[in-house]
Amino acid sequence: MRKDGRQLHEPRNLACETQINRYAEGSCIFEMGHTRVHCTASVSEDLPRWRKESGSGWVTAEYRMLPRATDTRSRREGDKLKGRTAEIQRLIGRALRASVDLEALGPRLVTIDCDVLQADGGTRTASVNGGFVAMCLAFQGLVAAGKLSQLPVRHHVAAMSVGIVDGQAMADLAYEEDFAAEVDLNLVMTKSGAWVEIQGTAEGEPFSPEQLEAMLSAGSASLPAVIAAQENALETGK
Question: Is domain 14-236 classified as CATH 1.10.260.40?
Answer without folding.
Answer: no
